[in-house]
Structure formats: structure tokens, C-alpha cells
């Protein structure tokens, strides 16, 4: 369970070490700015910016019931971060599965991507989409949530 936090912890520790060196050299303002930058970078690479993860089986059951897509992701993936940020509030309309925490999710991604754990992989209406364009996915979500429209 600590694996998703290794990169953020390393970023914070590196920021602290760099800030300490800058303070020792007499530039505390720059040190503070560098530390804030590393903390923000660590936050972006943590699980904190993503909606609450569920396991793959639960996500697939929920998706079958409500028609919402399932997103398989992992912390530290720049493409997952890009997708999450560009989706904005729409991200909460999907079921998120952290493949580092769920072996079934990792196996699902490998099955969809020829043995590779390529994320983000989005399962939409039973079809896998690897690293989809966030604008396309946002448009799909907006169409599927309009009144009078059916999902799919």
C-alpha cells in the first residue's frame, strides 16, 4: 500500500534537501519557493487529486448498472494526471481503479493492451480505450448525462 506514495515522498524529501541547501547559502526566499514547488509536484503525483479508487470488480459491476466508464490509472503517470486535470468535475462521473492497489485491475489493463500496463485505460461501453483524448471523453460524458439521452 505504500507504493503509490514512494514518488511523492521522494519529491518532498528532495525539496527539503534542496531547500536546506538554499537556506544554508543564504537564500531563504528561494528555498521557500522551491519547497512549495516540490510539495505541489508531490501532490500532483499522489493519489490525492484522483477520485476515490475502487477495485476493478466493483467498478465493473457499478459500470454495468449505471453505464459510467471505468478508468484504470496509477499514481505518478503523467498521462493519468493530464486526463484527471483536463476532465475537471467530469472525473467524478467515472469509476476509478488504481492498478497498483488492485491486481485484478492490473490484469484487466494487461488484457486490453497486449500484456502492457498502459494507463490510463478507459473501459467505455465494454470497449477499452488506451490514453483517450480528454476532450473526447469529456464530450462523451456530457452527452451521456444530458436529460432525455440514453447512455452509450
UniProtKB/TrEMBL annotation:
Say which domain of life the source belongs to: Bacteria
- Report keywords, A-Z: Membrane, Signal, Transmembrane, Transmembrane helix
One Pfam entry for this protein is Glutaredoxin
Q: Which residues form the Glutaredoxin domain?
A: 70-127
**Signal sequence region:** 1-19
Q: Where are the transmembrane segments?
A: 29-50
Q: Which InterPro entries match?
A: Glutaredoxin, Thioredoxin-like_sf
In Swiss-Prot or TrEMBL terms, this protein is called Glutaredoxin domain-containing protein
Q: What is the source species?
A: Isoptericola peretonis
Tell me the organism's taxonomic lineage.
Answer: Bacteria, Bacillati, Actinomycetota, Actinomycetes, Micrococcales
